[in-house]
Amino acid sequence: MDQQCSCEKCELKQLFFENVTENEMMSLCQNRIEKSYSIGEKIITEGNEITQFIYLKSGLVKLYRHTEDGKEQIMTIAKPFDFVSILSVFSDLKYNYSVKALEESVTCNIPIAEVKGLIRKNGRFATSIIEKMSAVSDKVIIEMLEIRRRNLRGRLALILLYFSNVIFKSNSFDLPISRKEIAEYIGMTTENVIRTLTEFRKDGILKIYGKTIEITDKKRLKLISRLG
Amino acid sequence: MDQQCSCEKCELKQLFFENVTENEMMSLCQNRIEKSYSIGEKIITEGNEITQFIYLKSGLVKLYRHTEDGKEQIMTIAKPFDFVSILSVFSDLKYNYSVKALEESVTCNIPIAEVKGLIRKNGRFATSIIEKMSAVSDKVIIEMLEIRRRNLRGRLALILLYFSNVIFKSNSFDLPISRKEIAEYIGMTTENVIRTLTEFRKDGILKIYGKTIEITDKKRLKLISRLG
DNA sequence: CGTTAAATATGATAAATATCAGTTAGTGAT
DNA sequence: ATCACTAACTGATATTTATCATATTTAACG
After folding, report:
1. Chain B contact for A73 (CB, 8 A cutoff)
2. Which of A74, A134, B96, B105 has the fewest Cβ atoms within 10 angstroms?
3. A9-146: in CATH 3.90.76.10
């Protein structure tokens, strides 16, 4: 079996398919589909049947859901390696959340039945999936609790630091979401997101050029993010 | 092998150990320890090493964590079958949350290594664990999002309905947590929990006798819990 | 290119919520 | 029973946040 599997070269192989045999790898690889999404495109739609196990190869996405009163609520923002849309995928038949690309994104889709079969067959694979899921849920829950404890300034500081330190690893970056979406993410109104950004600007903590943010006083921003 | 395993009669067997062989069952059963906790006793302490896989056989517990400023934040309240302290248990070495008994509770403790081994060996068991974990994380996350969307009256209504409908299945019940703990759970101050309870009483929605709550106008309480 | 819609922005005001200060009731220990 | 301590409660006030109204800028599109 000299055939080459392109997953071998995939940087996510280590994360998800460690301890998978050659044969299993081939099978996964043959059945997988890679999909590209441009900004704003929907990757997962709430209510749709779960048929694929999807993870993010590159890009940035938001996980969100619709509330009864028609508003959107962002659950978390996911980057590759960090979150891979596995939440509730194994316990439900239909998605209870949607996923949309915030940047050009590439996903890898594997039939969910294939993954479930592999979990049954390969214990080490099962272990790795459990560990990953566990870590992801944890991250989301802690993130929510941390956001909740803070006032508006603290919340906004937190998310700006998240973008700066975790996502973009730079003090200067383009906001991947609108002010409205920030509001939906950290539970405040759009007006107050804008107002608080302006406050930060006036306080000399950051500079704003439309979507571009440059954090000029990170020490102070950290301070604001600390307590209530 | 005529020996009787007491887990055979356990009502949780179906949930966790379906598809487990006789031998595996025996091994699990021999290594397990059942522990009883009285009200207020700690079951899990944040920072401690994770050595046991613990699930709730009976009773009621709270999962909570300590914030840097010394306060407590309740993540969720768990009853048997509903949540079993598996969050992050597989990805971390140490607990990042604590668990305390709100009622007389009984847990079943199995060495975590044993469970991990079984996941590796038995694919159907692995599947069942993944499904359960997935559902639990989902529940907690949705619960948090639902709480967050509401104002204080809505939040309190939500938690009262949760106690009434889900936990105690009665319109009259003893609150298993203090006003302060309710506040820590739904993210408001103790004073406002008390005040809002009083408001509900004055509005004829419920009667209060210390810890005992009797919901007299559930329709209205539901209405309050609906929107922001 | 102009037209429309959406996003960003700002101010005034109302409403919600937290904080502070203090009272009362209950609980456990001795 | 008394003391100490905590939980439950109440009111006044300050602060935070949402709402509403409106202007401006930017993006979207035929």
Report:
1. yes
2. B96
3. no
Q: How many CB atoms lie within 10 A of CB B7?
A: 19
In chain A, CATH 2.60.120.10 covers 9-146
Residue pointed to by tokens 């007006």 = A191
B151-226: CATH number: 1.10.10.10
Q: Does B171 touch chain A (CB under 8 A)?
A: no
Residues of chain A with pLDDT under 50: 1-2, 228
Domain with CATH 2.60.120.10 in chain B: 8-146
Q: Can you tell me the distance from the alpha carbon of B208 to that of A92, in angstroms, rounded to the nearest whole number? A: 39
* Amino acid letter for position A151: N
Residue B24: pLDDT band (50, 70, 90) is confident
Range in A202-216, B71-85, B111-125 with the lowest mean pLDDT: B71-85
> Which one, of A132, A109, A112, A118, lies nearest residue A24 by Cα?
A118
Structure tokens, B22: 């006789």
Residue type for A43, please? I
Where does CATH 1.10.10.10 sit in chain B? 151-226
Of A54, A61, A115, whose CA–CA distance to A85 is shortest?
A54
Q: Which residue in chain B has the smallest CA separation from A95?
A: B138
Show which residues sit with Cβ under 7 A of nucleic chain D: A 151-153, 187-189, 191-192, 210-211; B 178-180, 190-191, 194-195, 197-198, 208, 210-211, 228
Residues of chain A with CATH 1.10.10.10: 149-226
Beta-carbon separation of B144 and A141 below 8 A? yes
Tell me the pLDDT tens digit for each residue of A110-160: 999 999 999 999 999 999 888 888 888 899 999 999 999 999 999 999 999
In Å, what is the separation between the CA of B194 and the C1' of C28? 24
Domain A149-226 has CATH 1.10.10.10: yes
Q: In chain B, which residues have their Cβ closer than 8 Å to the Cβ of A142?
A: 96
How many Å does it take to go from CA B179 to C1' D30? 60
**CATH fold for domain B8-146:** Jelly Rolls (2.60.120)
Task: Say how many C-beta atoms besides its own lie within 10 A of residue A184's C-beta.
Answer: 22
Protein-covered nucleotides of chain D (CB closer than 7 Å) are: 7-12, 16-21, 26-27
Cβ of A138 and B87 within 8 Å?
Answer: yes
The structure tokens listed for B146 are 């639902």
**What is the nearest nucleotide to B151, using C1' and CA?**
C16
Give A32-70 as a DSSP string.
-EEEEE-TT-EEE-TTSB--EEEEEEES-EEEEEE-TTS
